[in-house]
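[SOLVED] Predicted holo structure with pyridoxal-5'-phosphate

Edit: marking solved, answer below. Original request kept for reference. I posted the sequence and ligand SMILES and asked for the 3D complex as structure tokens.
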Amino acid sequence: MWNIEEFTEAAGITVGELAAYVAGSQRGEAPVLRRTPPRELAERLGLRDLIAKGGLTPGTYRDFLRTFLEEGTRLHHPGFLAHQTASPDFPAALADFVHGATNNPMAVYEMGAAAATVEFEVLRWMLGKVGFAAGGGVLTHGGSLANLTALLAARARAVPDAWDDGVPGDLVILAPPAAHYSIARAVSILGLGQRSLIPLETDGLGRIDPARLPDISGKRVMALVASACATGTGLHDDLRAIGAWCSERGVWFHVDAAHGASALLSDRHAHLLDGVELADSVIWDAHKMLRTSSLAAAVLVRREADLDAAFKQEASYLFYGDQGFDLINRTVECTKAELGLKIFLNLAWRGERGLGEYVAGRYDTARRFWELARDRPGFTVPYEPESNIVCFRHGDGDQAAIRERLMRDGSFHLSSTELGGVRHLRITVMSPATDDRTLTSLLDEIEAL
Ligand SMILES: Cc1ncc(COP(=O)(O)O)c(C=O)c1O
């Protein structure tokens, strides 16, 4: 049984250490990341001894947690500009804590009525945002699973017998080369094979060219995938034009809006998703721009029945007929975390408006970076950003080496990507602590390097 006093003391320590960690991170005091070699780190944390012998107490737990936090990557730090992982807000963190204690794995309603109902209402809100009035959805552990789930629903529509008979050889999926790699993975997992993934024609920045959508004769098109926005560039495909092409031909239109769907909460940015309501399926990651911890992603479909057709499974110990909102028929996962709670608590605390202001603020800050870099000699910025992702270069030298130096100094954590075969530096503005001063000092540091 839990020793309630010990739990209360340890929880208090956790809150105190986390509060100091986030406060210091937001002020940019400590390095944004450390890269201590794993063997040295395992030693410093006393991992092998603790695994073998146990015996952690509240006092030694405090020491462990402090070092653990010091050695991690700080997503609340103004210099964290690397990946699209949320700088989590505390209501979502509270939800993780509640889940850790209650562990209501709500794939079936009876294993957590409150958690399942929260998920249902969060999904209803998300469906409303993308314009799927008669739609259905489910939360999954991440965007990659969400893409797979949506494409399974598309496969069930194109070939209802595929679950039992496998996929026919003439089935293809259309996607731009810039689509997230989870799409290519899903294609193989679904049994189509990579040769069935037909690359779409794009402009110089990787966006689908709606005027050059292909005439695929002799093949059955299972789905067309568009991005809102593309992972590498943060640029959006023209959903309205592509959606119209798909509906004229009866092609399943899947929109990977893992990153960009949250722009629907900002009046000034919602237009980037114009035409999303034409989609048959959409995915939306809350652990990107809705400030939840990893992972919580939504699969949303325009017609609810399409999602129910994605899986066909029997399990006599679990399937007793729907007793509320049984979502197990819609997911790869059997056991699931209480994913809806973290989205709900962020919404309930900040409101849709507060989250929309967060998205708008990060998009505006990225745009400011683009202006600052554009106006400085030596920097090249190949396009005007549409989101909080910006690609750029400094000089003609090795861009990866610049990134490496910044990370070694611990001042900034950037990512990089190839655009048209040329390596670029890439920033993703996630932390609310990143401001104009941060961006100016990033440019100064790169110049100095
Ligand atoms: C556009 C897009 N789709 C899907 C994914 C995969 O999401 P996850 O990391 O949650 O599996 C990502 C991740 O960055 C993404 O950018």
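OP edit: The chain has a mean pLDDT of 95. Thanks to everyone who chimed in.
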